[in-house]
Amino acid sequence: MSERVPVYDNHVHMSPSGRNVDALREYEAAGGTGLTLVTLPYKEVRIARGEDFAESYGITYSLAEKAREATDLEINIAVGPYPVLMIPLAEAYGLERAEEIMSKGMEDAARDVAEGKAVAIGEIGRPHFPVSEEIREASDRVLLLGMQLAKENRCPVIIHCESDADTDRSLAELADAAGLDRGTVVKHSSPPLVTDEETFGVMPSIPASKTNVREAIGKGTDRFMIETDYIDDPEKPGAIMSVTTVPKKVSAWLSNGQVPAESIHRICGDIPDSLYRRRGEIMSVKVTCVYDEGAKENTSLIGARGSAMLAEAGGKRVLFDVGLRPRYLAHNLDCLGIDVQSIDAVVISQDNPDNARGLDGVLKERTSPLAVHAPPGAYSGGGGMLSRSAGISEQARPMADLSHEEGWLEIFPGIHRTPFLESGKGYREAFLVLENPKGQVVLSGFGSGGPEAVLAETESRFKRKVHAFVGSIALEKAKKPVAEAYARSFQAHDVDDILLNHAVGRNGITNVRVVLGLSAVKDFYAGYVYETRRSRGSGRLFAGCRVLLRHLRGLLRSY
Question: What is the pTM of this model?
Answer without folding.
Answer: 0.58
